[in-house]
Structure formats: structure tokens, C-alpha cells
Design brief:
With 66 residues, the chain is mainly α. The longest helix is centred in the middle third of the chain and has 15 residues. It is flat, with a radius of gyration of 18 Å.
Length: 66
């Protein structure tokens, strides 16, 4: 257990403006849509456009799109 304390960790922060996404959320909130729903939808749309992000590498050389 003590060994885990010696593992290097770091954090990166980046301020972002969320006015536009928050406006969308306020519009769909009465329908029961959550922030999580919006984030999942955005992630799914990004994965469709960037297939390699959802790929796997088995042999250390080739990417296999799923």
C-alpha cells in the first residue's frame, strides 16, 4: 500500500467557457435531459468523426478500428 504513494501523479487544468453548452442544457433540461446525456452524445459524435480514437492496438504496430 505504501508503494502506491511513490507513484508519480500530476494534474492538468484548463479553464473553458461553457456558455453555449449551458444554453443548450437549459433548453433541454425540462425534458429530463442531463449534462451526462449531453456529454455522452458529444463523445459519440466525436468518435464517429475520429474512428482511430476508438481503435485498439494488439501487436504494438497496427490499429484495429472497431
Amino acid at each position: 500500500m505504501v508503494e502506491s504513494l511513490s507513484v508519480l501523479t500530476f494534474r492538468v487544468g484548463n479553464p473553458v467557457t461553457t456558455n453555449a453548452p449551458h444554453a443548450v442544457y437549459e433548453k433541454v433540461k425540462p425534458k429530463g435531459v442531463t449534462i451526462t446525456n449531453l456529454l455522452l452524445k458529444a463523445a459519440a459524435m466525436a468518435l464517429v468523426q475520429h474512428l482511430v480514437v476508438n481503435a485498439s492496438c494488439i501487436d504494438g504496430k497496427s490499429f484495429y478500428l472497431q
